[in-house]
Amino acid sequence: MKNKDFKVITDSDGIFKFELKKGDVLRLSHPGFLHKELKVGKLKSTERIFRVTLSEQFIKETKTINRPYDVTDKKSFLGAASTVYTDKLSSMMGTTILPALEGRLPGLNVTQYRGARAHQTTANFKGDIIGNIPLFGTGFYSDNTEFNVGSRGIGPVVVIDGIQRELYSIDPDAIESVSIQKDALSSMFLGMRSSRGALVITTKEPINQGFQLSFTGRFGVQSALKTPNPLSSHQYAYLLNEALQNDGKDPFYTYDDFNKFRTQSNPYTHPDVNWFDEILNKSAITQSYNLNVTGGNKFAQYFVNVGYVGEKGLFSNPSSSDAHDTNLSFSRYMISSKVNINITDDFTAKVTLLGRVEDGNQPGVSYGNLINSIYTTPNNAYPIKNPNGTWGGNVSFDNNLISQAINSGYITDSARDMVGGINLKYSFDKLVQGLSARMVGNISIQNRSYIQRSKRSPIYAIVLIKTVKRYILSMDQAIRSLIASTR
């Protein structure tokens, strides 16, 4: 009861006995759920039935917390840490786990600065007197190329199962928890890098008895939050003339031009093309599938996760005559496993393996250049195609946008990763309580490739020669015709 020392525990059916009176406030709580308060109204009998639904806690309360290199009791942990668990990570679809962390971990700032992943072709090591040393946390190599991740104004050190790896493109169903440890005490074992804090990612542990199998499938539709509504051709012409006249200059477009833009009586010489509608689809699909298998006994336990993620972009698909897909796309196949072996009562071994295959695709001009061109091309710049089927364009806009989207070749990039780790622990509890020795080993094999095959289609501008009274699709032909007419 609130503000009183009276407490009671319900039985398995939720029944409890309590002396109540009108106006008392019951405070109901359960591990893993948010507490709820219930005010007692007028009592009509000695027995009352309360139907109460408790909401699950956003952040679970566990007895232990994962530190960068070990697990400690939460009661003895003196640092500052915030944690989210797999049920929150898997509630959002994405190619990395970072979208699921936005706004959910106090002290961790995640902001998106790019709409799609960048090509990963830069080597992630530097030469030293002892050989090649991996680079972490500075540009490449991190598989995160879309988000800024910071804690206390600087990027945290990412630790996955006790090994420093900046891997964010991981199946969320294979992760048990993600914890941001913000103070120097929590990350003191990182040495000179302890001021950065630690983002500790812990993968799922196998169960120690029985067998469990689970399958999860997700399918979604994604769309742009908002796209600009560009001016129509006649609106653009009107406002441009007004701006020129305000500067004391002659208008660029005549009344006849304005009328043709408005009525679309000649779409080849006076086009009105909404490039956003022509190049971008309204929506695109994203999907993910995951299979988990776990089991074991007192001697050995295992956990295996197999997952697939596929995501399409919003660019219009090429026509059936094109040999290659030029839409923005991403796919990932991933398998991870963890095996725990109790060699003796004092000696244990833990082996982890992770394999990942990632493939990306985009138009040959790169998606960034194409998006920028859409924003800077007015509706009346040129027609998509000319009457004879050639790509439209002119001197000011010499690269047709639709041609760039579906006819400029393609860029593909791929990543192949194989990561393995072993953790050996020997306990000396028989000699000194709490004393143990641990050996941790890690091997990583990574491959990055990038193929760009691009082309640029010629464009042709329609030039109206009044003396000949026909459209000419070549500047050379226009000059020849003009010379012939003057003779």
Automatic annotation (TrEMBL):
Q: What is this protein called?
A: TonB-dependent receptor
Highest taxon of the lineage: Bacteria
UniProt xrefs under SUPFAM superfamilies: Porins
Gene3D superfamilies per record = TonB-dependent receptor, plug domain (2.170.130.10)
What InterPro entries does the database record attribute to this sequence? Answer: Plug_dom_sf
Q: Which UniProt keywords apply?
A: Receptor
